[in-house]
Amino acid sequence: MRLSTVDLQKRLNANKSKKMPLWQTMVMAWLAGALFLFALAPYGIWPLAIVSPAILYALLLPEMSGKRAFMIGEAYGMGLWCVGAFWLYTSIHDYGATPAWLALIMIAIMGLGMGLFHGFLALMFNRVVGKQPLSFAALWILQEWLKTWLFTGFPWLFVGYAFTEQRWLSSLAPVAGVFAVSFVAVLFAASIVELLRRRGRYMIAPIALLVVSTFLWLINPQWTKPKGTPDLSVSLIQGNIPQDLKWLTEYQIETLKIYATLTRTEWGRDIVLWPESSIPMFQDEAVGFISEMVKMAKATNTTWITGIPYRDEAAFNPKIDKYPPFYNSVIALGAEADGMYKKQRLVPFGEYIPFQGLFDILPNLAGSQDIMSYSRGSDKQSPLHVRGHNLGTAICYEVAYPDTTRKNALNTDFLLTISNDAWFGTSAGPLQHLQMVQMRALENGRWFIRATNTGVTAIIDHQGRIVKRAPQFERTVLRGDIQARVGNTPFMSMGNYPILIIIALLLLLSYLGKRSTTRARLGQ
Q: Any signal peptide, and if so, which residues (predicted)?
C-alpha cells in the first residue's frame, strides 16, 4: 500500500501527541548527562558510562521533529558538562576572584556551548541517519573527535576513560585509541536498549567487538618491549605551592627554596623531575639558581628536568613585536641531558587570548595593549635526550589530546608529563586528568612519569596501571623506577584513522539505508 506524504505526516503528528512534554524529556536528558560524572575518577562506577548514553539513545528513538531532538541532545550535553566539568568553578571563583553567581553563570554558558556537540549528534541521529545502535555510536565518536580540535578543542569527558582500568575493554586502546573504547561502550549501551525493545539482533555487533576486546585482554599482546637497558631511578618532586602564592613576586624565592630543599636528598638518582612552571620566572631571570642546580646535578651524575617559562630574546624583533615570544616549557639539564620542549596545546584564556589581533584594532579597550599570550610550540619538536634515551613530553592539559601525545611519543623510550592542577583544588578535575594520562600510557605502550605541584604525582606503567602515586596536597617526593620500552603500538602507527574511517563508512551506509527506507515507505 502506498502512503502519501500527508498521511505519513498525520501519523507522525498522532505519535507526537502521545509523547511526554519536552521539558520533562529535557530534564531526563540533563540528569542522564550529569550521571556520567560518576563513571569517571574518582568515583569509578564504570557501568554508568553505559547507562548514561543508553538513556539518551532511548529518549531519541521515538519519532519527533529535528528541533525536539536537538533540544534533548543539548540538554544531555549541558548536564554532562555543567556537572562533569564543574571543577572549573574552583579556578573561576576561588582563584579568578569571580563572584559565585557569575561563576555559576559562566559554567552554565560553558555547558550550553559544549552541549551543542550532543545537540547536533541528536539532530543528525533524528534527521540524517537510520535510528539504530551503529549509527548512534558512530555519531558519538564523531562528536568526541570534533572536541579534540574544533574551536581549539576541549577533549574531556570521553566515555572511553571510564574503562581505563577495565582490561576487558581498554585492551582496544593500544589498537585504535580511546575512541575505539568509547565506540564499543556506546554501541553496547544502545544495543541494550534495543534488546529491551525485543530487537535482540542488534546485540550481534557489540558482542562480537566485546569478544575481540576480551580476547586481546586474555592473550595480552605486548605491543612494545623493554629496551634492554637498566631501569632508571626517578624522583618526582611535589612542591605543593599554594596557587594564590605561586606567581607572587615576593614568593618566588621561597618557591625556589622549597624545591631546592626537597631535592637535596635526591641528587644521585638518575632523574629528578620538577612540575610545570616550578621555577616561577623566566629562565633569564633565574640564571644563578639554574646554574647552581645544574652544578649539583652534574656533580652527582643526575639528570634534572624542570618546567619553566622560557623567553626567547633571540627571536624578538622590536619592529614588529611588542614582546619577545615566550613559552611554557620543559628543559632537561645536568648529567647526560639535552633538549627543550615547548608546549603545543595552550589553554584558551588561560595561556593565550583567542583572536588577540582584535585587541590591536580596538585600542580603547582598557588594558588591551598589555595583553600577553604564551606562544605555541612547534608540532615537530625533537624529544628530550636523557641518559641515552629519547623522552616524549606533554605539559598539563595537552596530555588530554590523544593525537598530540601520540606524535610526541613516536621514537621515544618513555614519557613525562608535568602539570599544576592546584587551579582545581579538591575537585574531581585533577583525578580525571590523571585518568587521561593512564589512557595515554596504554595507547602508546610507554611508561609515564608525572610530576605535579599539588598532585596527583604518579608513576604509570605501559599498561596504564598506577605503579606509585603521591598523596595530594602534601609537600613530598615520589621515588621509583621506570622501564624504557621500544616499538610501536598499532595506535602509534596509525593514529585515529582506522576508527574514523569505520565511523565514516557506518554513517554513509546508515544515511543511504535511511533514504532507501524513506522512499519505500512513500511508495517511490
A: none
Q: Does this model's pTM top 0.85?
A: yes
Q: Is the peptide bond before 174 cis (omega within 30 degrees of 0)?
A: no
Task: Say if residue 30 is in the same domain as residue 88.
Answer: yes
What would the mean pLDDT of 7-13 be, rounded to a whole number? 51
Other C-beta atoms closer than 10 Å to the C-beta of 372 total 10
φ, ψ for residue 155, nearest 5 deg: -85, 75
**CATH code of residue 414:** 3.60.110.10
| β-pair type (326-334, 303-311) | antiparallel
Residue 365's pLDDT band (cuts 50, 70, 90): very low
**Are both 151 and 285 inside the same structural domain?**
no
- Phi-psi region for residue 120, left (φ > 0), alpha (ψ -120 to 50) or beta? alpha
Helical ranges in 128-203 per DSSP H: 133-146, 167-170, 173-176, 178-196
* Residue 337 bridge partners (DSSP): 386
Give the number of domains in the chain: 2
Closest Cα to residue 163, out of 38, 42, 47?
Answer: 47
Query: In this structure, what is the dihedral angle of CA atoms 287, 292, 298, 302, given to the nearest 10 degrees?
Result: -90
For residue 159, what are the domain limits?
Answer: 5-221+496-521
The confidence band for 455, taking pLDDT boundaries of 50, 70 and 90, is confident
One domain, residues 200 and 318: no
Clarify whether residues 143 and 244 are in a common domain. Answer: no
Phi, psi of 414 (to 5 degrees): -160, 175
Beta bridge pairs of residue 234: 271, 480
pLDDT digits over 223-282, tens only? 999 999 999 999 999 999 998 898 899 999 999 999 999 999 999 999 999 999 999 999
Write out the three cell numbers for 394: 606533554
On whether both 159 and 272 belong to a single domain, the answer is: no
Domain shared by 242 and 346, yes or no = yes
Count of CA atoms in the C-beta half-sphere (13 A) of 202? 22
First-last CA distance in the chain: 11
DSSP string of 93-126? IIIT---HHHHHHHHHHHHHHHHHHHHHHHHHHH
d(CA 409, CA 305): 18
* Residues recognised as catalytic: 276, 343, 396
User: 299, 287, 309: which is closest to 334 by C-alpha?
Assistant: 299
Same domain, 502 and 483: no
Backbone phi and psi for residue 342, each to the nearest 5 degrees, phi listed first: -110, 130
